[in-house]
Amino acid sequence: MGMCCIATEEIERDLHRSLPEHPAFQDEMGIAALRRVLTAYAHRNPKIGYCQSMNILTSVLLLYAKEEEAFWLLVAVCERMLPDYFNHRVIGAQVDQSVFEELIKKQLPELAEHMKDLSTLASVSLSWFLTLFLSIMPLESAVNVVDCFFFDGIKAIFQFGLAILEANAVELCNSKDDGHALMILSRFLDHVKNEESPLPLTGNQHAFFSDDLEPCPVTEITDLIRDSYEKFGDHSVEQIEHIRYKQRIHVLQTHEETTKQNVVRILRIQILALVDHVRILNKGWLLCW
User: Fold this and answer.
1) What is the CA radius of gyration of the chain?
2) Which pLDDT value is given to residue 146?
3) What span, in angstroms and rounded, lies between the C-alpha atoms of 57 and 74?
4) Tens digit of each residue's pLDDT (9 = 90 or more) over 196-240
5) Gap between the Cα atoms of 135 and 206, Å rounded
6) Which class for 17: exposed (0-12), middle (13-18), buried (19 or more C-beta within 10 A)?
7) Pick the residue with more confidence: 187 or 288?
8) What's the mean pLDDT in 26-52?
9) What is residue 63's three-state secondary structure?
């Protein structure tokens, strides 16, 4: 019961941050529907309850589906399609970041060679996976990526991410530092458009930053998706799951090792404090003697 209360408070805090630029969530009717779906899921699965980014995904689902349909789509995403993504350790997302790094090394070796530490790209791409690109691209373009996700699963997100990196490979290889690489990707994603979308055209409200001092070329979302399938669509779901399994073992071992180190560090601090306490007691005893 306590966990559900915490989830309810967190849901209330995020309701008005969910697609605030879209008319559907600028009145109480849309907000109430979003509240009901998220609260219902928190009651269904208290182990997950509510995590940030679930509000963004659910609000988009409500644009295309009735409340009950949106609820069951959310169940499918959280419990089957993106397992272990929506918890405080986000193990599933960390596993897929490791998978993505491995795919970058295999599919984009020159970029991987230039960026020796791929953790920078992994930290940037974490939001790609957690929100299925909904938080870092214009909505009218990102919904096409979500379509691909529901059709092909996580495979579609991996190959779309690779297509983004490939489209920016030259600039990324010439980037001066991590901040410059981040700016390159943010500006590119902010200018991925969908001219045929029935949704109102929106700027990206969630980009890290966008420096428009120089004109940035527009990329059509259909071209980017086509490239992702033609250039990086050769991995089967079975191959992806095999890499996932291998990387999951590594991530869990790393977590276990980190936990052990933290326990040892805490015990060491406690022992040192105890030694100091005993030393003080001994001094007091000697003075009394």
Assistant:
1) 23
2) 97
3) 8
4) 877 665 555 444 444 445 667 899 999 999 999 999 999 888 888
5) 5
6) middle
7) 187
8) 93
9) helix
pTM of the model: 0.80
- Report yes or no: 84 and 90 within 8 Å, Cβ to Cβ: yes
Residue 94: count of CB within 10 angstroms of its CB: 22
Distance between CA atoms of residues 248 and 253, nearest Å: 8
Spatial distance between the Cα atoms of 47 and 3, rounded to a whole number of angstroms: 8
Rounded (5°) CA angle 45-48-54:
105
Distance CA 194, CA 216 (A): 16
Instruction: Return d(Cα 281, Cα 162) in angstroms, integer.
Output: 63
For tokens 């169940």, the residue is: 75
Q: What is the pLDDT of residues 41-79, one digit of tens each?
A: 999 999 999 988 899 999 999 999 999 999 999 999 999
Give the C-alpha separation, 169 to 110, whole Å: 8
Q: Of residues 88 and 147, which shows the higher confidence score?
A: 147
Query: Percentage of the chain surpassing pLDDT 70?
Result: 79
Instruction: Identify the three-state secondary structure at position 219.
Output: strand
Res 160 pLDDT > 90: yes
Residue of 93, 18, 20 whose CA lies nearest to 61: 18
Bridge partners of 219, per DSSP, are 192
d(CA 212, CA 232): 30
140-145 LR contacts (CB < 8 Å, sep 24+): 140/193, 140/194, 140/197, 140/199, 140/200, 140/201, 140/202, 141/192, 141/193, 141/194, 141/197, 141/221, 142/60, 143/60, 143/63, 143/64, 143/197, 143/199, 144/194, 144/221, 144/222, 144/225, 145/221, 145/225
Average pLDDT on 126-154 reads 93
